[in-house]
Each structure stands twice: as C-alpha cells, then as structure tokens.
Design goal:
The chain is α+β, with helices and mostly antiparallel strands and about 140 residues long. The protein is built from 4 helices and 9 strands, in the order βααββββββαββα. Helix 2 crosses helix 4 (about 120-140).
Length: about 140
C-alpha cells in the first residue's frame, strides 16, 4: 500500500482555522504569528493538512524514494503549545534559539507556550534563516 501524505496544501480558510482556536490568548498569538510569518517570508498563508498554517513550499525527496511537498516555514496553534515549523537543527539555528526565549525543540519543530515568552525579532531571524535554507536545498535538489 502506498503511503498517503496527510499534510498537503489545501484551500481551507486560514482565518476560519484561527477563529476555531478555543483559547483567546492562542488565537491572538496566531493572528500575530500570521502577520510575522507573512511579512517575513513574503509568501501568503495557506493551510497544510487540518492544522498547520504554512508559507511557501518546497519539494523533498528522501533516499527511500518517498517524496512530497512541505511548507518552507509555518506554525500551528495547538492546544498544549504553539508549534513553529522551522529549519531542522544545525549550529546556526541553535545560536538563534539560544537568544529566542522560553521554548522546547523537536527535530524540525520549536514549541512555545505563548508569543510573549520569546523575542519576536529573533523569531523573524529564525523564519528568514529557515526560508533561505529550504530554498537553497530545494534549488540543489533540482540540479
């Protein structure tokens, strides 16, 4: 059976999704993140799957042959924490995260409780870095 990718770009409304967020504070943070990501990436916000707001896209292909598309950067205001989808861990990302503020990390995700816990200027730097890394990797894959 072929693997079906669940997180694909779709035409669902980003605003309707943000409006469905139960916590008023998370909803306010989601609107602020929408502005920050839109301004910083220069890409329009699109829904990816049911709960990720993504900006731009790139195509990936693994050695296994599995391939697909993903947002260059994005976020999701989840119940527990806000997930930020940024470049995977490397030295430059770690240096930026060191001055980011209160967060935890996964492989490609950075988790925050609320926007007030982090430095918005560093967030913009992380987003710019992510877009640059992803776009460069995408160009290299096309060669």
């Amino acid at each position: 059976m072929a693997y079906k990718i669940k997180t694909t770009e779709n035409d669902r409304s980003v605003i309707e999704f943000i409006e469905s967020v139960e916590s008023l504070k998370k909803k306010e943070d989601a609107y602020r993140l929408l502005d920050i990501f839109s301004e910083t990436t220069g890409y329009p916000a699109k829904m990816w799957g049911a709960s990720i707001i993504g900006f731009g896209s790139y195509h990936y292909k693994y050695a296994t042959g599995h391939e697909g598309d993903a947002p260059l950067a994005g976020f999701s205001p989840r119940k527990a924490k806000i997930s930020l989808y940024l470049a995977t861990a490397d030295e430059e990302r770690e240096q930026l995260l060191a001055k980011f503020g209160k967060h935890t990390t996964g492989k490609a995700c950075v988790y925050i409780n609320k926007l007030a816990d982090v430095d918005e200027q560093v967030l913009k730097e992380l987003i710019e870095y992510t877009v640059n890394v992803q776009e460069k990797q995408n160009k290299n894959q096309e060669l």
